[in-house]
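Q: May I have one protein plus its fold?
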Amino acid sequence: MAVSEIQKETFINLLEQIRSHVQLLKKQNKELSRENLKLKSKLDEIQNEQSDIFSSISESERIAMRHKISGLIEKIDTHLEGK
């Protein structure tokens, strides 16, 4: 059974459409990869600029804060044990 010329042409056209679409997707993927790298770089830059809340306070302030938090935890424990 021979394939008609119309079927061959249709197949070739569809194959070309698929190739074109694949090329477009590859191009988009490349562009998105570049954009992703830029965004990752920007995120790293922002994270490096930020500091945690403890790095901006002195050691004595940290100890005082730790003491306050421990006191609050004790009060919560006492309250929960009373129920």
User: Anything to note?
Assistant: Residues 58-83 form one domain. The chain is about 85% helix and 0% strand.
